[in-house]
């Protein structure tokens, strides 16, 4: 009965099935005896969902109309858009980015921001460039908008960003396509936890500027986990100043992780360019997409963000709270990585973020099954397993790498 464009589409629910098995194991054996490392949200060391007090208090104190009325604009309320600009480009963005133009489109989560960007910058049948190790939904989002994807190797033999393969794949797409759209999920790459060094970013941008002399280059920087990295934000922001006009950068912002409001569904696209036409066009087409897809987003979420970010005191409280959880993640990672080094368990280079990924050379199903027999639940990727450091308490981290190593050996 379905239309031709939708034939054969169905969600692969492997991960949901594993999460289900983990829940059942918890019912039978008790929470303390099960390691559920499948979840992608932040839990504290009592394995309770983290919610930030500043966020909860601000939300509870919103005016009723701030929550229940429609948002005033399709592309997002103006204070929300201002807050997003300050978060991404810095409080002094107006002075720091003189000569640049920006526009913000409010979207339902980072997911909406990715979707709009792929929809409006890929020509039908074109491929978005992704790393081989990636957050899976990018692939189906490309498919959903009538496009597809190509991939590059994420790391070289030395464990650094594989700039050579990245460049090769961009050059290949330059020959085949009118537009080259690239997603870079940084900092805190999901699933590895890799964060690019500033020099690596510099090389990527220099190369993309060269390519932009030939074709349109659209760089989508997915910053969903930006507040869980200790990266120097000034150095990072400086990278994006004065780029050539044919290289459009769109930052994909999400409130889900940084404000622990996954269910409020709020995010944004922020486009930055020195060319006003590029930005005007960005606003027009993405606003159109919003109206045609979800209309506008949660008004309460927008009010929440602007009331925190545009209030120095609240923002400071939020940062202090959030940094405690960031440090909690570092602590978990430190233990896991130290133990992995001691027993020579290979782990992809991790810098910060929610996840750690381990390459698996043998039958991955068998490894996952073995781990599950010991009540350890992980997410199998293609030839890797992902461990959600974000969701397991520190006491369960001790000894985990050893159990993984054993399951690989058998
Ligand atoms: N990007 C990455 C890499 C993610 O892992 C996620 C969520 O898990 C998102 C974007 C989007 O999240 P949301 O749509 O909840 O903002």
CATH H-tier superfamily of the largest domain: Type I PLP-dependent aspartate aminotransferase-like (Major domain)
The largest sheet has its strands arranged as 2-8-7-6-5-3-4
Instruction: Report the sheet-strand fraction.
Output: 15-25%
Count of discrete structural domains:
2
In the CATH hierarchy, the architecture of the largest domain is 3-Layer(aba) Sandwich
Hetero groups in this structure are: pyridoxal-5'-phosphate
Reported for the largest beta sheet, the result is: 7 strands, mixed
Mean pLDDT: 96
Protein structure class: alpha/beta
Low-confidence stretches: none
Give me the strand/helix succession. HEHHHHEHEHEHEHEHEEHHHEHEEEHH
Described by the principal axes of the CA atoms, the overall outline is globular
- The third-level CATH topology of the largest domain is Aspartate Aminotransferase, domain 2
From the structure above, extract its key features.
single chain, 410 residues, alpha/beta, Aspartate Aminotransferase, domain 1, Aspartate Aminotransferase, domain 2, 2 domains, three-stranded antiparallel beta sheet, 12 strands, globular, binds pyridoxal-5'-phosphate, pyridoxal phosphate binding, identical protein binding
Q: What does this molecule look like?
A:
The protein contains 16 helices and twelve strands. It has 410 residues and is α/β, with parallel strands linked by helices. It folds into two domains: 139 residues, Aspartate Aminotransferase, domain 1; 257 residues, Aspartate Aminotransferase, domain 2 (3-Layer(aba) Sandwich), CATH 3.40.640. Helix 9 links the parallel strand 5 and strand 6. The longest helix is centred in the C-terminal third of the chain and has 31 residues. It is globular. The mean pLDDT is 96. The structure holds pyridoxal-5'-phosphate. The site of pyridoxal-5'-phosphate has 13 residues, from helix 6.
């Amino acid at each position: 009965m379905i239309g031709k464009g939708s034939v054969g589409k169905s969600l692969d629910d492997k991960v949901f099935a594993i999460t289900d098995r983990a829940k059942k194991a918890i019912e039978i054996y008790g929470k303390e005896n099960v390691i559920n490392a499948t979840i992608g949200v932040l839990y504290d060391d009592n394995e309770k969902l983290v919610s930030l007090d500043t966020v909860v208090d601000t939300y509870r104190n919103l005016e009723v109309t701030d929550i229940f009325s429609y948002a005033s604009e399709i592309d997002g309320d103006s204070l929300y858009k201002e807050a997003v600009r300050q978060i991404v480009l810095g409080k002094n963005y107006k002075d720091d980015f003189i000569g640049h133009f920006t526009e913000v489109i409010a979207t339902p989560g980072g997911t909406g921001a990715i979707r709009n960007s792929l929809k409006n910058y890929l020509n039908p049948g074109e491929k978005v460039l992704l790393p081989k190790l990636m957050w899976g939904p990018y692939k189906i989002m490309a498919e959903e908008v009538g496009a597809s994807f190509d991939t590059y190797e994420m790391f070289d033999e030395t464990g650094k960003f594989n700039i050579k393969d990245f460049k090769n794949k961009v050059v290949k797409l330059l020959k085949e396509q009118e537009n080259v759209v690239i997603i870079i999920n940084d900092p805190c790459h999901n699933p590895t936890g890799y964060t690019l060094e500033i020099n690596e970013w510099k090389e990527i941008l220099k190369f993309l500027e060269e390519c932009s002399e030939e074709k349109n280059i659209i760089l989508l920087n997915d910053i969903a986990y930006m507040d869980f990295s200790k990266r120097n934000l000034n150095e990072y922001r400086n990278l994006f100043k004065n780029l050539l006009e044919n290289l459009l950068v769109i930052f994909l912002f999400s409130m889900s992780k940084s404000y622990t409001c996954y269910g409020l569904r709020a995010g944004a696209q922020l486009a930055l360019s020195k060319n006003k036409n590029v930005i005007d066009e960005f606003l027009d087409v993405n606003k159109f997409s919003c109206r045609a897809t979800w209309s506008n987003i949660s008004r309460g979420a927008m009010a929440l963000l602007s009331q925190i970010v545009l209030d120095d005191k609240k923002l400071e409280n939020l940062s202090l709270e959030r940094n405690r959880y960031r440090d909690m993640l570092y602590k978990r990672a430190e233990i896991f990585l130290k133990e992995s080094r001691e027993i020579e368990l290979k782990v992809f280079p991790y810098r910060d973020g929610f996840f750690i990924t381990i390459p698996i050379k043998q039958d991955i199903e068998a490894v996952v099954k073995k781990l599950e027999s010991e009540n350890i639940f992980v997410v199998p990727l293609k030839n890797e397993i992902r461990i959600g450091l974000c969701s397991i308490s520190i006491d369960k981290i001790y000894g985990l790498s050893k159990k993984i190593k054993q399951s690989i050996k058998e």
